[in-house]
Design a protein that fits this description.
By secondary structure, the protein is mainly alpha-helical. It has 3 domains: 218 residues, no CATH class; 135 residues, no CATH class; 220 residues, Hypothetical protein af1432, CATH 1.10.3210. The chain is built from 28 helices and 8 strands. Strands 5-4-3-6 form a 4-stranded mixed sheet. Helix 14 runs antiparallel to helix 15. The longest helix is centred in the N-terminal third of the chain and has 28 residues. The chain starts with a helix and ends in a 15-residue tail after the last helix.
Length: 679
């Protein structure tokens, strides 16, 4: 008992820690800086409330205007080139070494060439690429930087390139000057000085003003419904730029973070309170809480990533995926409640929270309404279509109200709605993954399991036909009872079909499979016979696991007899051995007891259907008495003490079982025979 209490306390601690982790992750996913949460276009109406300046900020010029003024200022820019004075002496020495002692040219010609080379090098030789760039930039002058960092202004037409320098040397046509390969001695000695040039350029541009005025704190900028004029557009754009520039300044303060934490804690608490009051079975299972937490964090995370790192609209996130998946595994009310809580959490991230909440809550309503019981793949496609139409309809209605003119409607979000709706088709894959991860069971899987043409059920019908027919009858009885008390009728129907599959191992020991033969159990000891009968539960669990049946279905097999006794052999032992106290453990099923409405319904339906076959007469009184006796005995033995089923529910189940058994064994009219006339 103490161990059980400690285990429950530990589970509660884990649940509290899970809630705190969810709150922490959600708060971390919120934008960490102040952002400009408005969308606007020039010539379109402002769709938000009155906007006033939150702080002083300048009105920035447009990029085009700034670029135009830059070009105008840089018309006066003069680039700087370094004149390398070591090049000329080096090339003159090389020329002297090649031709000075050869005697091939006259001293006069040599002196003439050297003089020309000194003149050319003193003005400077620039590379062809630099020269072409200067012409492209329409530069007329440059600064030559001489030794000692002395700047000397020079016109571009005075500067040589290697080609023009060579042409200058040979243009007089003296003697055989072209044969001297003078281009070998002409090397660029003017190199672009990027550091000095950029410094000079920045010095010119520092006088360029990027603003055309100031907006004071509290100044009215624009109100809802007003058209965004060019002047207002410039102010809004400037405010947006200033928000970006001030990101480091506008880091969220501790007070803002506390507000976010309190808000998220409040919303998560409301969800926990709902589950505690109305869905305690979800709260009891840690996997259920982990699953719901993962879904909420997944949707919030996708929204955060879209807003932070993408230029796409946040409407591309498939928000309706959450209520669809929750509805498949639980119920419509839970799905809608979880969806609404998630939408409220996400609304703090978006730029138009009212429109967002309106669209997403209505989409969630459509999702849970169109998936009352998702048993076919086509239902998901239909739901996706309905959700898309809901998005489009409510969005256009909202835009018509705010814009007031069809021509001003922004049609781009409809594209996002279409993509979001297409993403919903991946729900089947996610449902399969979540089933395996968290041990959940969807209606789709249940429908597949109820297919009597499946390999396991066909083998069941072949090996133990009597037991299979019994299971079909129990399935029908339990389904009708479940519908009346709002239990999961599809789940109980499926569990009933498989509850006795353990009898497949030794079908000959069970009377429903014996046709005119002797019952082999009657020749055994009572203890051995009871053991064989009781063993069909363990055999059923083994067969179910071998065939990969879900744990929820295995639970029906394990609990359908609870801790009841194999009454026939228990009573027979007592009668045979008067005064001897039997070992009740030998004659009792190992349990566990039913822990859900559905397993409790199955226990009642199973016992009633089996006993109904033993009645000597089928009258309303005998059937009513039989149902009352069996179920009252189960209650007295405490078989339903772990199941969340009320006395009112039990009475309803009794009534349904009585009606159904009577309809099965109703009296039929006796058809008369044709009398033959006596001759």
């Amino acid at each position: 008992m103490r161990l059980k209490t400690n285990k429950k306390k530990l589970q509660n601690i884990f649940k509290i820690l899970l809630a705190l982790v969810v709150v922490f992750i959600i708060v971390e996913l919120y934008p960490r800086e102040s952002t400009f949460n408005y969308q606007f276009e020039e010539g379109k109406p402002w769709s938000y409330e009155l906007l006033t300046a939150p702080f002083d900020f300048p009105i920035y010029k447009s990029d085009e205007q700034v670029e135009k003024e830059k070009k105008e200022i840089l018309k006066n820019f003069t680039p700087y080139f370094i004149l390398d004075t070591t090049v000329m002496p080096t090339q003159l020495k090389k020329f002297e070494a090649d031709w000075g002692k050869a005697g091939n040219i006259s001293p006069y010609l040599r002196s003439f060439i050297e003089g020309k080379m000194k003149s050319i090098y003193s003005k400077g030789i620039i590379s062809n690429d630099d020269y072409n760039n200067l012409q492209k930039w329409n530069v007329k002058r440059i600064y030559r930087i001489l030794p000692g960092r002395i700047s000397q202004l020079a016109f571009l037409n005075e500067i040589y390139t290697p080609k023009t320098a060579y042409e200058e040397l040979v243009k007089d046509g003296r003697e055989n000057v072209r044969e001297l390969n003078l281009n070998n001695y002409l090397v660029e000695n003017l190199r672009y000085d990027s550091i000095t040039s950029e410094t000079a350029k920045n010095e010119l541009l520092k006088n360029l003003s990027l603003t055309v005025g100031m907006v004071q704190t509290g100044k009215r900028i624009i109100d809802k419904g007003e058209i965004v004029s060019p002047e207002t557009y410039a102010i809004l754009r400037s405010l947006q730029i200033e928000y970006e520039n001030r990101k480091s300044v506008f880091e969220q303060t501790a007070i803002v973070s506390v507000g976010e934490i309190l808000l998220v804690i409040g919303l998560i608490t409301l969800l926990i309170l709902y589950i505690y009051l109305f869905r305690p079975r979800i709260l009891d299972n840690f996997n259920n809480l982990l699953f719901l937490s993962l879904l909420i964090v997944l949707i919030v995370g996708l929204t955060s990533l879209t807003i932070r790192y993408s230029s796409l609209s946040y409407y591309i996130v498939p928000f309706a995926l959450l209520p669809i998946i929750v509805r498949v595994f639980y119920d419509s009310r839970t799905a809608l409640f979880v969806h609404i809580i998630t939408v409220f959490i996400v609304s703090l991230m978006v730029d138009n929270p009212f429109q967002f909440v309106l669209l997403q809550i209505t989409a969630g309503m459509v999702a849970v309404s169109s998936l009352k019981d998702m048993t076919q793949r086509s239902q998901l496609a239909q739901s996706a279509l309905y959700i898309f139409l809901n998005y489009v309809g409510f969005y256009l209605a909202f835009e018509l109200i705010t814009e007031g003119n069809l021509s001003r409607i922004n049609w781009v979000p409809i594209f996002s709605f279409a993509i979001s709706s297409l993403f919903l088709l991946f729900a089947y894959l996610l449902i399969y993954i979540f089933e395996k991860m968290f041990g959940l069971l969807s209606a789709v899987t249940l429908v597949e399991l109820t297919n009597v043409n499946s390999d396991l059920l066909m083998k069941f019908a072949e090996v133990a036909p009597g037991t299979f027919q019994h299971s079909l009858q129990v399935s029908n009885l339990a389904t009708e009872a479940a519908k009346k008390i709002n239990a999961n009728s599809l789940l109980v129907r499926t569990g009933a079909l498989y509850h006795d599959i353990g009898k497949m191992k030794h079908p000959e020991y069970f009377t429903e499979n014996q046709v005119g033969g002797k019952n082999p159990l009657l020749s055994m000891k009572f203890e051995e016979a009871a053991r064989i009968i009781i063993e069909h539960v363990a055999n059923g669990i083994e067969i179910a696991k071998k065939n990969h049946l879900p744990d929820q279905i295995i639970n029906f097999i394990a609990t359908h007899h609870g801790t009841a006794k194999a009454k026939y052999f228990y009573v027979a032992f007592i009668n045979e051995n008067p005064g001897v106290k039997p070992d009740e453990k030998i004659f009792s099923y190992p349990g566990p007891l039913p822990s859900t409405k559905e397993t409790a319904i199955l226990m009642m339906a199973d016992a009633v259907e089996a006993r109904s076959r033993t009645l000597s007469e089928y009258t309303e009184e005998s059937i009513d008495q039989m149902v009352e006796d069996i179920i009252n005995t189960q209650i007295a033995e405490g078989q339903f003490k772990d199941a969340p089923i009320s006395f009112r529910d039990v009475e309803t189940v009794k009534k349904v079982l009585k009606e159904k058994i009577k309809s099965i064994y109703h009296s039929r009219i006796t058809y008369p025979e044709i009398k033959t006339s006596e001759k």
